[in-house]
Amino acid sequence: MNWYFKVLRKYAVFSGRARRSEYWFFFLFNLLFTLILTAIDISLDFYNAEAGIGVLSGIYALFVLIPSIAVTVRRLHDTGRTGWWFLIVLVPVLGALVLLFFMVLDSERGTNEFGPHPKNPLEDSL
């Protein structure tokens, strides 16, 4: 749960690097909260089947939109790529698969142009 709040504390921070665990734990908790809120929306009849979203889950989605993009950009930085690679999701199907591949890659060792290695920032001084 700490990883989730860590990302929220960096609400709109697009600089720096994010470890795999930071990204994937945020993704996991985001998914869980969305499923719970969707279930609540359905039970309270707040869910709009035509739109495919409910009131509560929609508000939550808007709330975490910027932190989700920010942590994705920081994760791309951690793999040595610029945040502009995020726009590859605009390519149908293939773009999402390429971005998924980037998200599961290991961190680039040492300091890169986006900052020190987030797992062990002292590693570079040795």
Automatic annotation (TrEMBL):
Q: Which domain of life is it from?
A: Bacteria
Residue stretches spanning the membrane = 21-40, 52-73, 85-105
Q: Which GO terms describe its cellular component?
A: plasma membrane
Tell me the keywords, alphabetical order.
Membrane, Transmembrane, Transmembrane helix
Q: Name one Pfam family in it.
A: DUF805
Asked whether the UniProt record includes Nucleotide-binding among its keywords, one would answer no
Q: Does the keyword Transmembrane helix apply?
A: yes
Know the name of this protein? Uncharacterized membrane protein YhaH, DUF805 family
